[in-house]
Amino acid sequence: MSLRTPLGRVLGLGAAKDGTSHFWGQRVSALALLFLGSWFVISLSTTTDFSHGAVIAEVQRPINGILLLLLLVTMAYHSLLGVQVVIEDYVHSHALKLAALVVSRFVHVLFAAAAIYSILKIGLGA
Length: 126
What we know:
The structure is a single chain. The protein has 126 residues and is mainly α. It has a single domain, classed as Up-down Bundle (3 helical TM bundles of succinate and fumarate reductases), CATH 1.20.1300.10. The protein contains 5 helices and no strands. Helix 2 (19-46) crosses helix 4 (62-90) and helix 4 (62-90) packs antiparallel against helix 5. It is elongated and about 65 Å long.
């Protein structure tokens, strides 16, 4: 016999021991995207010159480079979580679901790595 209330049992991790971290990952990354996306929109709206040199100079500023890296990494993570939910909900074949999840993870990591490399290359002046 358990002394836990029904609410206490519901707030646990459940049988899979996995859903809570996924839920919180989506919510926290969405909140981070709200702030980072707002910074990005404000940064774009205050920029007057969109020439190649001016954009490179903006990304080379340390605060802008760091915030842009955080924005892109957070976007990749949030997108990965969202696509994972869609695949798990709508792909019914186990083999196809597994393949789609693996391909999705590889594509998200590839794009995140390319974005990180690009921003670091610009930011470090290479």
